[in-house]
Design goal:
alpha/beta; Rossmann fold; Helicase, Ruva Protein, domain 3; two-stranded antiparallel ribbon
Length: 278
């Protein structure tokens, strides 16, 4: 055991916390695994941690046991609040819980830097939250690192390289301004109820500056446009951005007949700069 609190199965039974599919819930009950995820986030001492979707609090307990200065947990499901309150009582002054939708809550009023985000994200909002965290108005963002669990397919899209089917918008957004790597893979049977797919934990560590200069809004637009029609050649898929796109691509050394998944981050950034310049 990582603390003196009851096993998670006992907590779930006592509070009748059956996972709800509508909330994207799959509970991770093995406290050894939740402790491994907490350790994957690096040294938590001296850091505030944001956790979205704590559920009955398995990962929450791991984060606190690993020495997080303070954990802010955002939980949409009111059934989980009594279980989280018990954890807060066991770790006085170190756990704050906000009931609500993480997509509608600004956590910054409740956190003090340095801040790490560590979450077993609900499947139905995970990708949207990640994109928001990767595309703030100003860089560097409020967080130093993101250690997040996703369906394995989503995790592979985040770390994908050019030429692979998984490579796309998510890989480019993540790798433009972060180091991204998969640090842990978990089978379906690690969860209650077991999902249909494996899961993986991705760690994203922010870079002080983007790998290559590019205007963020234009880069997002170029990447989204290119991958919305990923089977088309760039001279076709990007024509809505510039009727003269073929000549522009040629001038930049990008093959107009190439498809989006063949183009690396540096080339996309060069194209975004060129389009932004007019």
């Amino acid at each position: 055991m990582i603390d003196d609190l009851p096993p998670l199965r006992a907590v779930i039974a006592r509070h009748d916390l059956r996972a709800k599919k509508a909330l994207g819930q799959n509970f991770l009950l093995d406290l050894n695994l939740t402790a491994r995820i907490a350790r994957a986030a690096g040294d938590l001492r001296g850091a505030d941690v944001l956790e979205v979707g704590p559920g009955p609090g398995g990962l929450t307990r791991g984060l606190l046991a690993e020495g997080a200065r303070r954990v802010l947990a955002i939980e949409k499901d009111p059934r989980c609040l009594p279980a989280l309150a018990e954890i807060a009582a066991a770790y006085p002054g170190r756990l704050s819980v906000i009931e609500g939708d993480a997509l509608a809550i600004d956590p910054l009023a409740h956190l003090t830097p340095p801040i790490k985000v560590v979450s077993n994200l609900p499947y139905n909002v995970g990708t949207e939250l990640l994109v928001r965290w990767l595309t703030p108005r100003d860089w560097p963002p409020f967080w130093d690192s993101l250690t997040l669990m996703f369906q394995r397919e989503v995790a592979e899209r985040i770390v994908a390289k050019p030429g692979s089917k998984a490579y796309g918008r998510l890989a480019l957004l993540a790798q433009w301004r972060c180091e991204a790597r998969i640090v842990l893979t978990l089978p379906p049977e690690a969860f209650t109820p077991p999902p249909k797919v494996s899961s993986a934990v991705v760690q994203l560590t922010r870079l002080a500056e983007p790998r290559f200069p590019a205007p963020a809004a234009m880069l997002e637009r170029v990447v989204a446009t290119a991958f919305n029609q990923r089977r088309k050649m760039l001279r076709s898929s990007l024509r809505t951005l510039d009727p003269g796109i073929e000549a522009r691509l040629t001038r930049l050394g990008i093959a107009p007949t190439a498809r989006a998944e063949e183009i690396g981050l540096e080339a996309f950034c060069a194209l975004a700069r060129d389009l932004d310049a007019g």
